[in-house]
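The following record pairs a protein chain with its ligand, beta-D-galactopyranose.
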Amino acid sequence: MKFGVCYYPEQWPEARWAVDAQMMHDAGLQIVRIAEFAWAAMEPADGRYTWTWLDKAIQTLAEAGLQIILGTPTAAPPVWLTRAYPDVLRQDANGRGRSHGTRRHTCPNSPTYRRYSQRIVQMMVTRYGQDPCIIGWQVDNEFGGGKTGRCYCPHCAAAFRTWLQARYGRIEHLNEAWGTVFWSQTYANWAEINPPDTAIDKPNPSHVLDYYRFSSDSLGTYQQQQVDMIHAGAPGRFVTHNFMGLFRDLNQFDLAAALDFITWDNYPTGNPERWRRYLLPVGEAAGPVVDYAYDVGDPVITGMAHDLMRGLKQRPFWIMEQQCGHINWGHTNPGIRPRTTRLWCWHALAHGAEAILFFRWRATLFAQEQYHSGLLRHDGRPDVGWADLKTMQAERALLAQIAAASLAAEVAILWQYDDLWALQEQPHHHDYDYMRQLFVFYQALSSSGISVDIVSPMADLSRYKVVLAPTLHVTSSPVVAALQAYVRGGGHLLLGVRSGFKQASNVVTAVPLPGALSDLAGVTVTDWQSLPPPAGWVLQTEVPGLSGLATYWVEALQPHGARPLASYEHGASAFTEHGVANGRVYYLGLYPTPAQATAVCHYLLAGVGITPLVNLPPGLVARCRGPYTILLNFTDHPLTAHIHGRDTRVAARDIMVLDQASLEG
Ligand code: GAL
């Protein structure tokens, strides 16, 4: 397990660099990321490069024994570029342009921006590609951050038309796929198509979904150019990008595919605050029900982000930016107490982190992030994360052993950005969000101590005993084929409400629901309803815990081959099980409460011989990595878990590691 830090030498006097580098080394840090916003310092005027400072910074850090990650600076272009070529600036959906003075204000489809981005990256690669101190590269910074995942400028409109042409071939095919006969939307040629107008009434959902896909692909091709240049000019160095957990606007699976491994930016007090409204019904979104300590965030939400990040490539990840004090962009930005940073690091490790870099070395004296903390305070004295870093130095051997252990989840949840985007456009119920439907199952598994990979349906599913697809809404032939292969090979698949409803172009299937998944599920959905609370259909079942009311979204199922496991009062089935070759397919026709989701998960786990941890007290997280069970207490009071046959007490905001070998011995 390596530790590192994000450092901005261009923001500090040169005379300070050697002091900082030595302090980093003495603190046990091994890696430092630099340069990702320093374009103006590298190229102060068009074609005039100033590398001396960066040479010196690299040399100073390397002399202190630090390994360096270089960031390409394309998230923060210099003002001369945006002045000379205003067409590099992005436009929002209302046609409003961005201007200089922030970051990510450019368009990935601007040919000028691409040309200049490639030039600065090529210059960096030529200069530093073979430098032995540089172990890897970060492309750009947080694609899509600050609501920049989609641009609506004329370059994007043109590129969108080309993208559509490649996808549909003929304009007639697009008209048919989108159903443009509706409201006289029919197009006679490609030039008539613009980005969807989200300002007036409702745009066509097929148009919207394609625009979201196109926007994500645009950043994908933009990224690919940099990846190719770095691979060519910096052999043997890794290429990565810093992702944003449960960020919604880009297909993170696609972006991850081009990278050697992924890293992500973990801000546990800020991110869960942002994501909670997508994950919990409106009434519960205000704050966590569990009495977590005030400065730890919501570990189940952070855990879900870790598991999606691990699932992007089905392999461990790095944390490129780890919060180590207060941030500056949350609701209240709570001060962080001693032991919290350590708790977060152990949490990341338990979910598959291999290295952690703290954000940032020292709090900045100026500009946008003055109120953001670092390992050092503004005045250069250690801040709260520093002592935790010292504690973790003493734990280094154990951290390294766990980081080297494999994390083999037996359960996966499927995540499709097409589903997220299609349902975001047409939720039909104000409390229906794709991520909410996934989270209720994730939460159930997490509170049972079950490790989960969150993966694309096109991932290698054969490694999982159970795969949950809580809402496989948009189907395509490859996805249906992948699920069929998984089940025939012995897998157990759960399908949930609204599955099979849409075809790839975001139009409804004309086949009885669940459409292309009907044969697999062995049921027909004869009726579906969105229910306003507190309405519900009464459940009758022998599945322990799956009782009470089905609320929010209900589907009446008629089995054809499947066996009912639960039904509604009025007789239709609510939950079914269908044997297919060596595997099984379950269909759950309701949006479950947390208790109902737990009941369903335990039923499925029992079917494959996985034993959940029961009675984990709320606030205690348990994760297995290799032979280790890592217990993490996110509350301000001690908690006891009965685990592996004995009671284990974990102190407030502390961790405990149980080693299988010592337990057996
Ligand atoms: C991240 C970003 C960093 C910094 C940080 C502050 O999203 O990548 O550059 O702004 O947030 O928390």
